[in-house]
Each structure stands twice: as structure tokens, then as C-alpha cells.
Amino acid sequence: MNLIAPIDSFCLLAESREHPMHVAGLQLFTPPQGAGPEFVRDIYDALVAGGDVAPAFRKRPAKALGGFSNALWAFDDEIDLGYHVRRSALPAPGRVRELLELTSRLHGTLLDRHRPLWETHLIEGLADGRFAVYTKMHHAVVDGVSALRMLQGALSADPHDTEIRAPWAPPPRKNRPPRGRRRMLADAIATAAGFAPATLTLTRAALLEQQLTLPFRAPRTMLNVPIGGARRCAAQSWSLDRIKDVKNAAGMTVNDVVLAMCAGALRAYLTDHDALPDKPLTALVPVNLRTERDADGGNVVSGVLCNLATDLDDPAGRLRTIHESMRDNKRVLSELPRAQAMALGIGLLAPAAFGGIPGLGAATPPPFNICISNVPGMQKPLYCNGARLDGNYPLSIAVDGQALNITLATSADSLDFGLVGCPRAVPHLQRVLGHLETSLKDLERAVGL
Fold first, then answer.
1. Residue of 139, 160, 273, 428 marked catalytic
2. Predicted TM-score (pTM) of this structure
């Protein structure tokens, strides 16, 4: 057994029936020319045929004193791949709408803590001949970056490569000695020891410094309410060149443009519901802290707060404000040692994750209004048994007080957006996609494109 790192234990503690704490990816593939009707079945058969399974796909919370422990990982030696890997078909007419309805149902169900915390679903029946793969893993096991790396590792840059690889297969070690159990235990103890003083001291100091430029007390909105257990997912891709053109014309970063695009969409969506606050919305923007030493999953992430400037009608003004907010707050983060930067992430997330405690959410203002995460993805076209990856949509977590999450990833020449929301708190979630397109057009006009 291994100790569970503090931030991973936090993800287990925060989970309830209404608040699943897994992250997921929805991948869309176009089969190669000449693929027969058994193409997806052949991939499924190859995946469940088995082989070695990486440690991240074998671990589950250990049981202690008759219940699950949030302090220790147990590792299963035998993995029932027939349980974890599943095959489904969409009902007619097999549109993307039916795919997202199925994805929404899958995303709203808890993972079984008696088994390793992951599932993969191969989905057929799209009318255009494509197929999808939906994979979810508990956030205690992976963060967004490590999850995408695992999914990417199963694909090939060669369209003629017919070897079928599983994301859960152990990756080859590249000039990095494997960490023994003693080393892993020592790392976990050191990390835990570093978190306590960091959380109590430097986290508070960093938050106070952020407040010099960005209030931590975000305005309460229709997005910051208690939520139920159902989930609604929406997904769409945008040309990376369009975002880069705005970035180059404005002298900003791709992430600045993405945040401005989301800010414009949120402003329009809230205006539609007569719910736009006078104060600007605040976004939590996760920041990856992973290095080559962090190849075994887990969470190696922090975050900064960003002023989305939704109180401004001018798209160019919103973009400038977002750029300045991200620049200043990332500078604060960069000055912290890694353990303390991770503690800052816990300090930001804790009020949101435990907002379901009776009376707490209603008595305190939201720490932020929405989480917007830009995860590094694939830089070139990738294939599975010759099937081209057309879209790679990350799907994250909604919790009490945070009814909407926006996560996106690079997929070759596109940015793939995945939205997850509570359907009761965020009605007609797909309309946010239309507002994202309008917001990007507004930015293009604002910078003279």
C-alpha cells in the first residue's frame, strides 16, 4: 500500500453522490478507408484481451475499519478489463446530440471504489460513420495533464500503424529509474509535511497578495448555487489559427484569448437570463506544475484567479484586463516553491469543493465563479489503428457552488472545448457554444481582423 498524497486525498474526501470527482475525455475518430463493420469490435477485443496494467489503473482506496480509507492506496493484481472496458451503440438517428446525451449520463455516475477508479466506453452508431471513446478516471488518480498524456500515449502519429495500444498499458521508461516503494513513501511523507505549514502561512499570504489586484470575493451568480447529481456535457472545436491570429494581433497569449472568448460567452449567457452581475466574474485557472519526474499520475497542479472583466462591454478592454490579471497573478505563483504552490491550489479549491456542507455555501461568497482550464494536448494528427482522431474533448467537474466548468485541449490544428454543467442550474448548456463563437468573432473585429 502507498500513502495518498494530500491533494489526491482531498479529491476523494470531496466526492459525494451529487458531486462525482472524476475527469474524462471524449475522443471522436474517423475510421480509415475500407474499415469494415467489425472495426470497432476488433479494437474492443484487442483492448480487453489484456496485458500489463500500469499502477495508476490498478489502484483504489484501501479499506480500513470497515470503510474506505482516504489515506492509503491498495493495488489490485488482477484487473477485470471486461468490467472497465465497455462497448455501446447510439440510438437512431446517431447524431452528435445522441452521443452527448449518452456522455452526459456516463459523466454523472460515480466510479466504483471497490475497483480501480476508471472506465473506458467504445461508442458506435454515429450516422456519419465515426466512433467515439469516452474514458473517465477519478481526479484522485490523475489531473487533466496526466490524463491527456495517457490517452495520447495509446495513439500513433502513423496512419498506417495497426498496433492497438491501451492507455492503461505501462509506458516505456525513458532514462528514468523506477521509484521503489520506499522512495514513493518518502515522497508522500515529505509532500504531506510540506503542505501543512504552506497551507496555513504562504497560501494565505499569496491569496492576500492576489487580492491586491483581484478580489477573492467573487459576485454570486446563477452559476454559484447548489447542484444535483445529473450532468450535461457540450463540446465543440475551434480553429487554433483563428485564436492565434487574435493573439498575434493583440500581442497577448493564446490562453489570454481563450479566457476572453469564455468571458464574452459567459457575459452573453448571463445576460440572456437577466443574471449578469455588476461586478466582474472571477475564474480559477489551473496551472500545471508537472515535470518529467511526475510520470505516475496523481495531481501536480496549482491555480491562479483571473478577473474576466465581464462588466466591460468592450471585447478589447476585456482582453487587456484578462492579460494583466493573468500576468500579475502568475508572477505571484512563480515565486512560491512547488509544495507551497500546490497548497495554494488547495486553498483556492477547498471552499468550492466543500460548499455542500449545510449552510456553508449560502453563508459565504463564492471563492470564484467558474473554473476554466486550458490543458496542453496533441500537437500533430494522431491515429488509433488507422482511425484519425478528429476531436479530443476534456470533460471535468462541477460541484456545489460551481455549476459550470469549461476545459479545453489542443488537438493538432484545433482547440477542443468540453463543457460540463448541472442541467438544473445551467439550462440549455449548448447555447454557451454559440456564445463562444460570437465572442471569438467580436474579438476578431476588435483587433482588426
1. 139
2. 0.86
